[in-house]
Amino acid sequence: MDVLVRAVNTALFLSHGIRRDSHITLHLTGGQGPLRRVWFDGSTLRGVRPDERSIAGHIRSIMKRQIPPIGTWEEVSSGISHSGGGLSDTLGEWSREGVNTYVLDSLGSSFDEALQDAPVGFILSDHLPFSDKENNALCACQRLSIGTEWLQGHACIAIVHHLLDG
Asked: Taking Cα atoms as reference points, which of 126, 166, 161 lies closest to residue 146?
């Protein structure tokens, strides 16, 4: 849970505000039962403080709810929604929305050589490498590197924001 919470915090919160042009989709794939996605939308997010306990509480409360059908996003609170589905579903939605999708990978191309068009979406793993099934779903995505070391997810998000803000 702490990996997810730090990713949400880094993706959305500034020193004194929220990144209104960013959102983050968490893929909850552990445990039994169907896959669940949780979407935090910075443009409409309200009532979430930038501390780990607050964010974790929102995620825990969502996990107690019945999972909506794949493709149906149910708003839980302002700026937080959830849906059934996994990585392939998210990639399909992003494709239909015209999102240019990149995978962060230490062996990928230089970050400086990409990102000509917006909107952009980034896929990164948690503390484990992508599974074979996930890599198959990601095969059409360009892989970009922000360095040769395997970094924690929230650090990768901070670096990407720094590069995009520059």
From this structure: 161
